[in-house]
Amino acid sequence: MRKLLQSTQSGHRVSWLELFYDLVYVIVIAKLAHLVTHGHDGHLGIQEFIVFIALFIPVWWAWTGHTLYSTRFYDDSVTDRLLTLGQMFLVTLMTLFISDAFYGKGHMFALVYASIRGLLVIMYIRVMLTNKEMRPVTSCLASGFSIGAILWFISAFLPPYWMYAFWVAGLLIDFITPFRCRPLLKEVAVHKHHLPERFGLLVIILLGESVASLASALTPQEIAMTNYIIALLGFISLSAIWWHYFEVIERIVINRELGAAQLIIYGHLPIFIGLALFASAIRQNITGNLDVTDVTLVFSISLVLYLVPILLIAHQAQEKNERLPLRVNTIVLIVLLVTISILRDYFSAIGISSLIATLMVIYVYINTPKSNGQQIKEKDEI
């Protein structure tokens, strides 16, 4: 059956299976975040951060690959469903092998990742064979992605040094492919509602996982009142992030023409990394397993990773006369966060939680239009 180009369908919405798909990925992301903030003797090492980023990139790219396919071509057919479910099972297997993937034992991780990408290539080939109009762009994407998947597959049979080199080569080819196909991708623009909605749903799920992580850190038998206060402040900070993100997405990004949407796509890599780190920082601040200086540093880094791409995404979507307030407010907050990281030796657990929550609430307040409720009401009436 001929597949329709989903980005031209005005009613294209996230499917139930896509939401299920996102939930599986959050398990992997949560496990990665735990690895980086687990630390040794109460402190974080630079090695943990490097490993976290290095493993987060392929996990994010696997999720992004299916997301971009879905926003353009997914038709909820039996074949698409089965291929998606197959990827979900492989992502589940990924959680078993990700812990040791960067310690000379990444062979099974490489095989699983190559299989996930291989199933995505099959999805593109299916479109290529059933839709002549889409053949140029799907063949361009499928050829590049298959080379990347093959390199990952070969890496599983190589010694560690060469294995990791092949990982880098495979990812570089994957990243270059959309830019190589960009002239063709402009003709099949991503869906202006579906793509931001898909990214937004994963943000919601990550925030939900953050709340679950926060709750799991509280043990009623041993908990002190200060820990309850830290948990409350952490929840306030998470709520502020939710508020800010969806103010930007709903008010500025959704329903704007996105074209190839490269900034939104690649900009969400640091956003997701920042949210995962922020959730772990809240948990570690409650449990006390990490020194407060390290927790403070993670808080600052995670929020900067979140704020910078959000600002750039908003800047691209906004009109020139709309940009200045958000830009100034965000830069001021980033400067304050950098200052906090420099002065991290002077904060207590409850002190840094209070400061972060206060800054985020103020930031959200001054960046939320006071007439927003009326605007939404008028929009609904239309």
UniProtKB/TrEMBL annotation:
Keywords: Membrane, Transmembrane, Transmembrane helix
Transmembrane residue ranges: 20-37, 49-70, 82-102, 108-125, 137-155, 161-179, 199-219, 225-246, 258-283, 295-314, 326-343, 349-366
Matching InterPro entries: Low_temperature_requirement_A
Pfam families with a match to the protein in the record: LtrA
Alphabetized PANTHER family for the sequence: BLL5714 PROTEIN (PTHR36840:SF1)
Protein name: Low temperature requirement protein A
Organism encoding this protein: hydrothermal vent metagenome
